[in-house]
Design brief:
Elements lengths: L2 H21 L6 E5 L2 E7 L5 H18 L7 H7 L6 E2 L2 H16 L9 H7 L10 H7 L8 E4 L4 E4 L12 H15 L4 E6 L2 E6 L7 E6 L8 E7 L3 E8 L4 E4 L2 E4 L14 E8 L2 H14 L1 H8 L6 E6 L3 E5 L4 E3 L5 E6 L1
Parallel strand pairs: 15-17
Antiparallel strand pairs: 1-2, 2-6, 3-5, 4-5, 6-7, 7-10, 8-9, 9-16, 10-13, 11-12, 13-14, 14-15
Bound molecules: adenosine-5'-diphosphate (ADP) and magnesium ion.
Length: about 350
């Protein structure tokens, strides 16, 4: 081999290595708009582009399967075939629907994935308006999770009556957060924060081994105004909040938000502003926080007891806060009072 050729090979080699290194640059965080929210993923130390890409592709894949706003999604296909025929869906979609049905049963139907017609009627996200009592009464009979027929042999889903519609808005983000964390973990990431629009998963531990701090949003303020934080020492934890402030509109001096009571068709109106659930599985925490919010404090606590790993923070309209015994919550906003820890 000639002298020049050797040099050429070495230089080409260096260029390739340089190119690979620049592709594998670490990034502190990545933001993307997906699942109807802003997702912020932070992979510590080894946040390579490739891993961020894999995580966001997976989140997008879940959106493509489960969003009601995407016509070709499994959920849109199920809804279009309501009252007509069963629709075969992806195993992921089937799994999330099955879990949603589990929570519907466990919550006595206050959590109901057939809430779709009510979500469309109020249209809180796009063109919100207060529907007439007549319109609400017309669609209420369509909201009944018992009319979802699941075939576990074929992963098929059938909605018994025309006009029924699934909406996984209260659970799909949690599933996506679990899946995103799984990808980070299998790629050897030792520390990460995955924030899917408020559905947060914490993975691993910080370099200095101090606890993670996850802010709890003030229910009175716009985003990013914490009233305190929870300290997390577990290697895998999720913090999910459901409240009146995430999506809402105001009309005639009243506040209308996006979590509905399937029994009267109105946004839930009880003494709660928000419920935060801290646990290990984000899909369950997502469904639980919504279900507990609808159930209210006493019945919500009874449901929570079925999940020994789950802790909760209840923020009430009178600015009192209650937390379960295992919650490591530190209040920083003096406008609120932690009344009692529930043992
Ligand atoms: P966010 O989506 O803001 O994180 P939630 O997890 O509490 O909040 O989900 C609220 C969404 O769940 C609504 O936008 C709607 O799509 C759906 N939903 C509303 N009411 C119910 C209900 N009673 N049961 C199940 N899903 C609901
Ligand atoms: Mg939820």
């Amino acid at each position: 081999m000639g002298y020049k050729n050797k040099y050429l090979i070495i230089i080409t080699g260096l260029i390739v290595v340089f190119f690979l290194l620049s592709c594998e640059q670490t990034k502190p965080s990545r933001f993307e708009s997906v699942l109807g929210t802003v997702c912020v993923i932070t992979l510590y130390e080894q946040g390579y582009d490739r891993i961020y890409n894999d995580i966001f592709s997976r989140i997008k894949e879940i959106e493509d399967l489960m969003s009601v706003n995407i016509q070709s999604s499994d959920i849109s296909r199920i809804n279009a075939a309501a009252g007509i025929e069963a629709v075969q869906v992806h195993a992921d979609t089937f799994k999330v629907i099955q879990r949603a049905v589990f929570f519907a049963e466990a919550s006595d139907g206050v959590f109901d994935p057939t809430i779709g017609p009510l979500v469309s009627l109020w249209d809180i996200g796009e063109n919100p308006r207060i529907p007439s009592q007549h319109e609400i009464e017309d669609i209420l009979p369509l909201i009944n999770w018992r009319n979802i027929k699941l075939d576990t042999q074929t992963n098929s889903v059938f909605l018994k009556y025309m006009g029924m519609a699934l909406d996984l808005g209260a659970i799909a983000k949690g599933f996506a957060a679990d899946e995103a964390a799984k990808i980070a973990k299998t790629n050897g990431i030792t520390a990460a924060i995955l924030d899917l629009g408020g559905d947060i998963v914490i993975l691993g531990e910080k370099k200095d081994k101090s606890p993670w701090r996850v802010g709890i949003q003030s229910p009175h303020e716009v985003q990013n105004t914490p009233i305190g934080f929870v300290q997390i020492t577990d290697k895998l934890a999720t913090v999910v909040t459901s409240g009146i402030y995430q999506r809402f509109f105001e009309a005639h001096g009243k506040h209308y938000h996006h979590i509905f009571s399937p029994s009267n068709g109105y946004p839930v109106d009880n003494d709660l502003l928000s419920v935060t659930v801290i646990s290990d599985i984000s899909m369950d925490a997502d469904a639980l926080s919504t279900a507990i919010f609808v159930l209210g404090y006493e019945k919500g606590m009874a449901l929570l007891e079925l999940f020994p790993k789950a802790e909760a923070i209840f923020i009430f309209k009178d600015n009192n806060i209650k937390t379960t015994a295992g919650t490591n919550f530190i209040l920083t906003d003096t406008g609120f009072v932690v009344r009692s820890n529930i043992f």
